[in-house]
Description:
Largest sheet: 3 strands, antiparallel
Structural class: alpha+beta
Amino acid sequence: MAKISTAEHVESTAYALLRQQGFTLHAIESGAGSTPLLVASNQEHEFRGHSALEILGLIAVFQAYGEDWHPTEDDAEHRFKYWDSRDEDSD
């Protein structure tokens, strides 16, 4: 069983994977006092996030759902139930 957590060495692997998938990478300012955004783009798409791992997640969402990536009400409800159940477990 693999166990991987977000960490610096995994972030470096994520950058490498984005480059292997044909994305060019650059950072842009996102506002005064804000963390810059990493931009990964190819000839067809542009994805923005605060890390290469976030961008890989965005790409996975887009690959799974395409232009219709917006969550349904059911999706949102399940997400909130997960976080609500975590609060109950910590009591």
